[in-house]
Amino acid sequence: xxxxxxxxxxxxxxxxxxxxxxxxxxxxxxxxxxxxxxxxxxxxxxxxxxxxxxxxxxxxxxxxxxxxxxxxxxxxxxxxxxxxxxxxxxxxxxxxxxxxxxxxxxxxxxxxxxxxxxxxxxxxxxxxxxxxxxxxxxxxxxxxxxxxxxxxxxxxxxxxxxxxxxxxxxxxxxxxxxxxxxxxxxxxxxxxxxxxxxxxxxxxxxxxxxxxxxxxxxxxxxxxxxxxxxxxxxxxxxxxxxxxxxxxxxxxxxxxxxxxxxxxxxxxxxxxxxxxxxxxxxxxxxxxxxxxxxxxxxxxxxxxxxxxxxxxxxxxxxxxxxxxxxxxxxxxxxxxxxxxxxxxxxxxxxxxxxxxxxxxxxxxxxxxxxxxxxxxxxxxxxxxxxxxxxxxxxxxxxxxxxxxxxxxxxxxxxxxxxxxxxxxxxxxxxxxxxxxxxxxxxxxxxxxxxxxxxxxxxxxxxxxxxxxxxxxxxxxxxxxxxxxxxxxxxxxxxxxxxxxxxxxxxxxxxxxxxxxxxxxxxxxxxxxxxxxxxxxxxxxxxxxxxxxxxxxxxxxxxxxxxxxxxxxxxxxxxxxxxxxxxxxxxxxxxxxxxxxxxxxxxxxxxxxxxxxxxxxxxxxxxxxxxxxxxxxxxxxxxxxxxxxxxxxxxxxxxxxxxxxxxxxxxxxxxxxxxxxxxxxxxxxxxxxxxxxxxxxxxxxxxxxxxxxxxxxxxxxxxxxxxxxx
Length: 725
Description:
26 helices; single chain; mainly alpha; globular
């Protein structure tokens, strides 16, 4: 696929040695960190200081208008390929890289029927993995962050690079959509007086539905509340509508957070989003208010609910959620939740089990947020000794007795804590994976990746076997939540090797295969796939092997939710797109017909596979559009996936790729703008910037595209503007 012009100019690359300082290279005072070797001796430090300059790894920096500063670390002595932008920059004008678009990265004549699998901008990303991305010169992300999945479609990324630089009509339309999004956010504030809680509760019937939705979904996986106690508090609140008597503001805040989470499952369009955002706002103010900063188990429960509510409703940036999770774990340690109750003074079974459940939940939230944000977990297994909770039902703990004995259930008997226990058993290997992939010390070792992958898959198989042995069995939501948790660690280990799998299929074939299988499994229960029945081939396959029935709660969560419930299905779609691109590329290399007739007219043996993958991608595109309709005020998921699919379809049909991507992008922007205009209450084709705007540094500056609004909130906007409070 060719670029728009014969000659494209991109910023040059900065090559400099990377030297680890003592604080990065070894533990201070000789202390060991979890998953790392012992501290270096003085001789080791001296030897490191005397390493020759040419033995140090080199850091290649790509200044991208779309991604920001992209870092790649080359092994000592490695040199960029002769066709790479770095090599070209030696003879180009300083600060720019000139690339002849008549030749591909290998120096061969480009063919209009070939879909490129490497970037014109960064031609050896398929040889050395990206080690980090810096957004807006202050946010650093490791490769587990979702933004790295955009590099799996390099042709779409190059197209977007050109659009950002040209500032043409498509970019202007994106600016209009951004302005509409800001207007929508500004309108999503209900009038509220500080200190008044519970003024925006829904009717009792709606509240009952929302509360039960929370209990059957997240509370059945992440144990935060003692359900019988919470039900009693819920009844007290409705019996005391004036919030007098026993209905304290703290319980009202907890209830509202449960309702905010439950609102995500209420309908397909998230009609209660405005109220849910208000309930989150009240919870934040209550936790920050004077006198509430004292560390108590109750407040930590509220903090866990707030964490989940932000993931499902508020669309805070992943780095913000990760940072707040660090505060949560330190608060838990301050009240001793990290110590097992057996090693603390005697306490009733209810208190002991609730402490174990709450600590296990906090560990899950902190670990998963580190993967989402692309940051280290910042704790190790040596930091706590609290054991997993017992296999008990909540009702069995609903006893004021101070007896230290608790009922006993067989491990295979399904209880209220079975899912939490099952996930907790995989915690050690997941912590090892998170530390490995997000460590500044770890070297890129495919051998170590495969070793950790083997351990992870062994735990994954044990988890699946255990879940299917439970009687009665878990719900579909619980099963799919466990799938999502484990799948993100598979992606974290292997997704960075996918670009290299084509160049070295013998070494990286397993990484490619496991990513694709995981992506298809996630897509199978996250995307309805109903309209795919119109495809005769898929309809025939469905008659033989019926598609899995979908869980309505899960489909609504990935449609209305944020955080991992958006980023992981999106990453799965990008993996599917990369696999389909790879199949087309391999067919071009092996079929004599490619270059003579379009891909769709060849009798390739992979025809069935391509139909399946393309159907999944088209459903994923509908999913991104449905998210806008449900109130996600960013169109960038929708536009980027549209462009990626347009490039694939154009190559398969033998039509001009650039023209197809331009046309489809304009159509997607028109659809997205129409939806946003309706949400904003205007039908105009242009929109003026609202006056109460903050921190807009210009949509055309470097790294602005992905750093603003992709997840629904600017990276530098921690709180609402003053005019919105």
